[in-house]
Amino acid sequence: MSDTVEIPPKCVLNSGAPLSELMQQGELLNQNCPSREILRHLTSRWGVLVLIALLEKDQRFSELRRTVGGVSEKMLAQTLQTLEADGFVNRYSHPVVPPHVDYSLSPIGREAAERVREFADWIEVNIARILSAKSGHGEAVAAE
């Protein structure tokens, strides 16, 4: 079994190019590009909120569940497993009974979380404009 990842044509990994440039080149828009799956994980509702919560401090599962309001135990577990598999979250299980598990961001996870937080901050700063545009769109559709 090989540890190498097959990179589909028109998809460049580790190119170092910014997303906007990659979109112009079309790699990110290629349905077989692995970066699409990572983008989906990082920008999922729970993924965004978990990353932001872990930016503040390392947390246990139950503490993280309280911090990220509305997330079910199942969805939080799935999100943490996905982010851990992608290398963004570290999981440390203490050898005690009952089990005690801490979650933290890896260095690349911290970098990604900071970027995601910037996007979330932009949404918060512009929420009035967004809601206004959203309601204006709804009124325009209703008038048609």
| 3D shape | globular
Structural class: mainly alpha
Helix proportion: 55-70%
Provide the low-confidence segments as ranges.
Answer: none
Q: Major sheet: order of its strands?
A: 1-3-2
Summarize, please.
The protein has seven helices and three strands, in the order H-H-H-E-H-H-E-E-H-H. It is mainly alpha-helical and 144 residues long. A three-stranded antiparallel beta sheet has the order 1-3-2.
Describe the 3D structure:
59% of the residues lie in helices and 10% in strands. The protein contains seven helices and three strands, in the order αααβααββαα. The chain is globular, with a radius of gyration of 19 Å. α3 (45-56) crosses α6 (107-125). It is mainly alpha-helical.
Write the layout of secondary structure elements.
Layout (H helix, E strand, L loop, with lengths): L18 H7 L8 H10 L1 H12 L2 E2 H7 L5 H13 L3 E6 L5 E6 L1 H19 L1 H17 L1
Antiparallel strand pairs: 1-3, 2-3
Helix pairs in contact: 3-6
